Amino acid sequence: MRTTASRLAVLFAAQVLLAAQALSAERDAPSPAIAVIVGHTSFVTDVSKDQLRELYLRRQRLWPNGARAIPINLPPDSHVRERFARLVLGRSSEDLIAYWNARYFEGVTPPVVLPSASAVRAYLAAEPAAIAYLPVPDVDASCRVLLVLGE
Predict the structure, then answer these.
(1) Which residues contact 86 (CB under 8 A, 6 or more apart)?
(2) How many structural domains is the chain composed of?
(3) One domain, residues 70 and 119
(4) Which residue, of 80, 121, 127, 136, has the fewest CB within 10 Å?
């Protein structure tokens, strides 16, 4: 006959195993593809992954027509931002902290950060020189998709 303590230990072990399986399944779930987007009134008609890297690292600050490029980021704690950083910039968000600290002394500021998909879409609708990224399911008819990453 098992004691109460051993029953509790078995129950606890089972709960830990179930929690670990749930976390593993969540981590293994496919992330939605990321759409690189502009507003419908934007003059930007295409962009390459290399050009995106240059825009988001602020090494390219103007569009070919001379307009100031405005790259938009999601908040630092966003998993979509982290995935975008790895796919396009080849770095993690943490690696980029040192990069931006060094650029600060050169007078180069990082991309604008907006708090949500709706804020990104509203900004793009008002600013034709802006470019952003969102998970594909968050893109609506107010945006034009230039590139899809991570399909």
Answers:
(1) 92
(2) 2
(3) yes
(4) 136
